[in-house]
């Protein structure tokens, strides 16, 4: 899943080397923490959060069938 998130996000940003994805797993939940360069934050979130929502939709669709756990993505700087 980390690879999928990186594959989606890296082409969107000016600093692809700064893209980091960390995974935090709990009993019934997996949280992916996406970190990007502060200058790229607007590109990843998009107008009214549309890009972030699209990224989440793709990841939720792919992860839902694999893990059987609730998946969420946090975008941090």
TrEMBL record:
A cellular-component GO term for this protein: cytoplasm
Compartment(s) of residence: Cytoplasm
Record-level GO BP terms: cell wall organization; peptidoglycan biosynthetic process; regulation of cell shape
UniProt record similarity statement: Belongs to the KhpA RNA-binding protein family.
Quaternary structure annotation from Swiss-Prot or TrEMBL: Forms a complex with KhpB.
HAMAP family, alphabetized: KhpA
Protein name as it appears in the record: RNA-binding protein KhpA
Organism encoding this protein: Sporosarcina limicola
């Amino acid at each position: 899943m980390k690879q999928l998130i990186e594959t989606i996000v890296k082409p969107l940003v000016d600093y692809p080397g700064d893209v980091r994805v960390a995974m935090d797993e709990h009993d019934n939940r997996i949280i992916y923490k996406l970190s990007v360069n502060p200058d790229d934050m607007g590109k990843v979130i998009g107008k009214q959060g549309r890009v972030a929502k699209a990224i989440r939709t793709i990841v939720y669709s792919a992860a839902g069938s694999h893990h059987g756990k609730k998946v969420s993505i946090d975008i941090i700087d």
